[in-house]
Prior knowledge:
By secondary structure, this protein is of the alpha/beta class. Helices cover 47% and strands 11% of the residues. The longest helix is centred in the middle third of the chain and has 19 residues, at 49-67. The radius of gyration is 15 Å and the shape is globular.
Amino acid sequence: MLIVVTGPPAAGKSSYIKARAKANDIVIDLDLMALAMAGPGADHHKHSETLLRIVHRARQAAIHEAERHLDTTDVYLIHTQPSPKARARYKRLGARIVVVDPGEQVVRQRVRDMRQGEMEGVVTRWYRDHRKGGSRPVTAQASRLW
């Protein structure tokens, strides 16, 4: 099964997955992929444009291949702000959408404490789109348990 974990930056998406994924599950997390491809001592969330370009391509390849194994393997995919096209694709794949959102005040404080300043804009966009219905679950199986 495909489990798409969405939510604003610093919401706890990775923690949600760590608490649930099993050793044989597949986890596709852009930040973890970037960290694995970066040199020693790299920041966990701030990546160069070159690294991001490479990681985005690797992520797409991983998603494409993982889709072939959904009948035998649980795949956790972090997608902070899926587009309508991505949400429709996930729906076609029978994905379970999980929205991790501890609340805007908590997220903004975490971003101030743990992330670079440009993440504030991503938080603002996420909540704006979420209020419009842009990040609403596409299946009835959505969960907010964490």
